[in-house]
Amino acid sequence: VSSAELDRLVASIAPACSADAAAVRSHLDELTKPPGSLGRLEDVALRLALLLGDPPPPLRRRQVIVFAADHGVARRGVSAYPQAVTVEMCRTIAAGGAAICAISRAVDANLTLVDVGVAGPVAPGPAIVSRRVRDGSRDITETAALTREEAVQAILVGADAVRERLPDTDVFAFGELGIGNTTAASAVTAALLDVDPDGVVGPGTGLDDEGVERKRRVVRNAVDRAVRTGISDPIDLLAQLGGLEIAALTGAILAAAAARRPVSLDGFICTAAALTAVRMAPAARDALFAAHRSAEPAHVALLDALGLEPLLDLDMRLGEGTGAALALPVLEAASGFLREMATFTSAGVSGGAGRPQQ
Amino acid sequence: VSSAELDRLVASIAPACSADAAAVRSHLDELTKPPGSLGRLEDVALRLALLLGDPPPPLRRRQVIVFAADHGVARRGVSAYPQAVTVEMCRTIAAGGAAICAISRAVDANLTLVDVGVAGPVAPGPAIVSRRVRDGSRDITETAALTREEAVQAILVGADAVRERLPDTDVFAFGELGIGNTTAASAVTAALLDVDPDGVVGPGTGLDDEGVERKRRVVRNAVDRAVRTGISDPIDLLAQLGGLEIAALTGAILAAAAARRPVSLDGFICTAAALTAVRMAPAARDALFAAHRSAEPAHVALLDALGLEPLLDLDMRLGEGTGAALALPVLEAASGFLREMATFTSAGVSGGAGRPQQ
Questions:
Q1: Average pLDDT, rounded, for chain A
Q2: Is pTM beyond 0.90 here?
Q3: Among chain A residues, CA nearest to B207
């Protein structure tokens, strides 16, 4: 485990400046459509052009990576499901029967599951990568989830998963799996945003009101403990309150941003990892696209902190990267229209360049 | 032109009852995910199952059809663009340079343009079908847009375009092109919903405030004239206030519903046609999926009347079927997860059947 390797990764992330924003806006207004008529797809096209150049390349080779791990805090009754569901769902993904398998197929994306530390055995398979740091994180109400060294190791697991797939990947979608991980993400969010833990706790997979109250107490205890212990930087924060898959997501986001690959971010947990990554390397934000607005209530506060507006709003709250995968065709459509559309001049269409006739 | 043919088409449209709704809901809750966690994707899956059976088949063979025509009312200054843009944009579609060309490619959909009556020559091409009823509709402030016979003929043009493509198509997306057609659609909407014309007129391709005021007066005049003349049924309404592509869209929707093919509906104009079709054959609604919420303000009233909730909300207002095409992967994702996901029992995952453990 090399902290120097992580330092080099963070230092390699530069702001997206592959195109001039004013020139891209002019290009958008010269295309054969009323100015602004593609709405938020035009904002996505602008950001893709800044990241990748104008015109942006096709985003056809799509890679979904789901990072899975267990959480010691699961024993506190913070999930509607028992911890065993993490390993069972890993096996379901391996067998092709999970929601993310179907949705990845629907959008023609390749799918990989990275086991960063599930609490039981996951058999190797064509879509399964075993990079276990430890058998789940520790209970954050009692102690740090991870040592700082384990957190760095998990971050680099995520970074490696991305770097190994760069030659075949135009765009990434990241997701997660881990019973108890909305509890860890809520604690990370409360610490990142310095807000009251009560406001960042939601029902997760489907807790009842009593369960949500219990989860609030658990998150408050964990945040209080971590703050007493002291949090000096985002790596400490991941170690104190996060978990293995949240750390791996953070590293995956850093590596994708360093390589200038657009990232379709799933919901609450992924976005907590994204804000952690952006605290380490602010320019990483330029590679991030918020796929959807999760039904988990604290998601919107994280999106606001990142200045990202979600593309889809379908009331989804499953995780596994399902929202992130579903948004991949929207990113390709934005890239495609900027790359492939004619201009008013080239097509000989009347009334162009943002100046419609009245 | 056979009114009897249209009567037979309308009579052939039956409600979607290929599955039992309660059984589909049970199936949805048995899948390996927290109950309801795929949000509105689950509602789409339920409706697809009712239309096509549970499990629904793949929706891989995607056909976008854009219906184009001109409008006599365009000479009243109701659009930000001159009428010539209709034929120019038809040529841009033929050359592959329009927004709908790029977005169709992005979602792997085949694209066809049907010229139902553009006011200038559109050269034939591989993606162009010429089924011209007349050189644009008449000015609706002065007289009926179409004779009843022309309206029936245009409806059957739309129906034929769908029927000819049924053997190779799992799912349709419909769009339109025609300078002045938000004016016609506003008039149709005011008459269909029996509401004040002022409330259903928006900026279209980008009118300024003065232009919107002018458009309001035009729509009010047209609706007043048509109501005085008398409107006896939806075909009369299309003849009095609609246009050739709006009538063709109505026929396309009827034919797709009769053949039980899901339809991804574009924005305001397509939805006005959809409500017209549903007034002719209420069961046609079961085949319709609202792709997106258009920025055109009256769209939401039409969606409410149809009881449809839009899938995407990206502030798009281009037309051409761009929103409809962009939603096709969402329909495939909904079909795919219901068809391909494992159940709690089959996958051996703990805590299934909608009864999470606390």
A1: 95
A2: yes
A3: A358
